[in-house]
Amino acid sequence: MTNQDAKAQERLRGQDADEQLRARDLGARERSGAEDAVPERVLAEDVAVPERLRVAGLRPVWAALHARLCSGQRVSRFRVTGLDDGQQAAVADLLGLDRYPGPAVTIDVARLEGLLGLDARTVAEAVIGPIDDRRRRQAERRQERQALLDWFATHPVVVAQPALLALSGGPTGAGGGAPGAAGTAEAAGPSGADGAAGSSEAGARGGAGGLVVRAGRGLVGQALDVLAALPASGRPLAAVAAEVTGDPHALDEGTRLAALVLKGLAILYDVDAPEGAQARRALWERAGVACDALSTTVLVAGLRPRGDTVLARVLRLWDGQPSVITLAQLHDVRELPLEERDAYVVENPTVLALAAQRYGAACPPMICTSGWPNSAAIRLLRALTGTRLHYHGDFDGAGLRIAAYTMAKTGAVPWRMSTADYLRALADCPPTGLAPGKVTDAPWDAELAGVMRERGVAVPEELVAGRLLDDIRPQNAESF
Predict the structure, then answer these.
(1) Number of helices (H) and strands (E), helices first, in the chain?
(2) Among 202, 350, 353, 398, which one has the highest count of C-beta atoms within 10 angstroms of its own C-beta?
(3) pLDDT (tens digit, 9 = 90+) per residue, 201-237?
(4) For helices 237-245 and 217-229, what crossing angle results, to 10°?
(5) Phi-psi map region of 233: left, alpha, beta (phi>0 left; psi -120 to 50 alpha)
(6) For residue 419, which of 66, 174, 252, 128 has the smallest C-alpha distance?
């Protein structure tokens, strides 16, 4: 061993009297088994790290060790790179080398601790700062994301309208719901666990929980509450915001809540997210916010409600003939009870027109949503208290979303909307050549969406109108 090597090791092993006394005291306490014995691993604040180990030239060593320890894995050696001449000299002195190690060196932790007479982790914490177990923190964040996605996937609003699962970046098709959301969280891995930026990037790619993770449970919960309160029957946006959140400005232009609700509406209606103030206003109006109470209408037939309201008397005068009801006419109507126990809701006006043509004044109560139900349609259906609502629509992607929305908002039950009904329609009807488009899960039939995707054929409601009309044939209508 050279004189330089011997001197370097002597310096490293040398400690002042106070350090030696402290070390002997700690050893004595450990051997005696006293109740106040120090922990197995001495913390940095419990041991004075000599200033000679804090010099700038050694900082890259402690920084590299610190980074490895933060991985949460066992570290037996670590590599230091990018050393300049001064730092190489400091490392050579630290390790007792007889020459510079070069710009990169691999250090054995056990050998280093033997030279230091100290726990290397303790020195790294004292010089650089507390050790952050990134692996554990990433696992905790993945668990938190998973819990958030599970909560979202099982929220009643999402269960009733599975298309909203797209907000979480999860699948909206077969196997949607909680398992689908769980898949996105596991696929995300550590890449999105180091902060909002990582989550945002992953969310933009449809992973790591998408908008749900970026927004957080509080904001997402408010957005789902707003979606549950829509359509708004022509109320101003501030009134909707105040009713749902308690803050009339919560849905103002530019707020995160407004942006999230609009995204949800765009997903439900299967339209592009609105860009520009005019497009956002149009989407709010489609959801019944501050819409025109005169041009917002619903088509009905066979309605002869009880009661003395103006609307009830007018409909009885029409004696069940096809009529158009405006949102303005429904403004003060809370209940519109019918004599009949059942009413039938269809998506397409042609079906209602055929029913009125076949049954005339004997036509049973029918309401047509004319595609997506507007505020007038939802308000009317909700007013038919005591009446069981039966819903039928197109067998295509949009038709399933409209059906789920209508059932969720009004309590209607599916009417010939099962997998068996779809397959029977395919067998009975001539091939349409129409693709079903984007098909999301049907909450009332777990197999329907998968079968429709597999067959790849849409069945418009008009093609099964004959079977629907047979279902609602009046008991006294034997001649029809």
Answers:
(1) 22, 8
(2) 202
(3) 333 334 446 789 889 999 999 999 999 999 988 889 9
(4) 120
(5) left
(6) 174
Cβ atoms of 223 and 285 closer than 8 Å = no
Tally Cβ neighbours within 10 Å of residue 357. 12
Distance set, CA 2 to CA 113, 115, 133, 300, 407 (Å): 22, 17, 41, 103, 88
| Cα–Cα distance, 243 to 304 (Å, whole number) | 33
Tally Cβ neighbours within 10 Å of residue 43: 14
Separation of alpha carbons 109 and 69, rounded Å = 11
d(CA 218, CA 256): 12
Confidence of residue 401 (pLDDT cuts 50, 70, 90): very high
Work out the number of other CB atoms within 10 angstroms of the CB of residue 269: 18
Identify the CA nearest to 142 among candidates 207, 101, 188, 202. 188
DSSP letter for 184, please: H
Give the amino acid at 291.
C
> Residue 478 — very low, low, confident or very high, per pLDDT cuts 50/70/90?
low
Which residues have CB under 8 Å from 440's CB, separation 6+? 162, 163, 165, 172, 173, 176, 397, 400, 401, 404, 449
Per DSSP, helices labelled H in 58-171 are 59-69, 85-95, 109-116, 120-127, 134-153, 156-160
Count of residues for the chain?
480
pLDDT band at 180 (very low <50, low <70, confident <90, very high): very low
Structure-token pair, residue 362: 């004997």
Tokens encoding 263: 């995204």
Q: What radius of gyration do the chain's Cα atoms show?
A: 35
Phi and psi, residue 174, nearest 5°: -60, 135
